[in-house]
Amino acid sequence: MFTxxxxxxxxxxxxxxxxLVTLYFLGNLAGIPLLRKTNMPxxxxxxxxxxxxxxxxxxxxxxxxxxxxxxxxxxxxxxxSKEEIAKWLCTGLTLTILLLVGGLPFSLIAxxxxxxxxxxFGWELLLASIKAGVVEEIFSRxxxxxxxxxxxxxxxRDLEGRPTGGVYWMAILLVGLLFGWGHVDARLGNPTTTxxxxxxxMVLNSGVGIYFGWLFWKLGLEWAMFAHFAYDAFVSLVLxxxxxxxxxxxxxxxxxSLVIMSLMSIRYLVLRKPGG
Length: 276
Prior knowledge:
The relative contact order is 0.15. By secondary structure, this protein is mainly alpha-helical. It has helices at 14-30, 32-37, 45-66, 82-110, 123-153, 165-185, 195-219, 221-245, 248-271.
């Protein structure tokens, strides 16, 4: 499987910093329509300005740590050759498809009690998925994973100064669990939510969070962002609406399509030479 090989140390790139700050700000804006539709409170403009400034400082710090831990955003940083970009795209797409196939059954179970009468269909959900993919990945993966890997690197690194594989995995697992708990915490206080609902939310979101962290490590921030967006968008705009339809033919088409895509993805990964 193709993976990104970052240098052990690389200089701070201001263009990447500005691009991520802009994406972070636009990602937050993308979440406003859904907040309005669900009558959720929206921060005042001055607070947005303060949060954007704080996020810019966090992104700058994250990039500094990523530059010392062989992590980052390879496409934005122009770390890929033309030949590598094609392999990077194909690998990321196949791994995203496998995430959808593996995670959708659990997401379906977690959404069995969703009310079709109050479900917010439409473009608001698409924008909210963009927000989740951008904002949550910048904070969870670029910042937290880079932070924990940077700390681990001080304790355990190889002769070239790279963190060992164990350091990466410990950071990915820890952040994945924090990511899962963050989604559980958002449901606390709901009297209709049972212990098993919380357990399923924790397992599901920790699992996908770990997967996003692994993508961040192997392919870079861009694929962690895209996989997160694609997963949320597919669940909210395809899976749940199909569940509401209760149409056996539509379910059959979806299942056959996912099986075909997963088999093609596995075939690509198995036949692809290591690193190629």
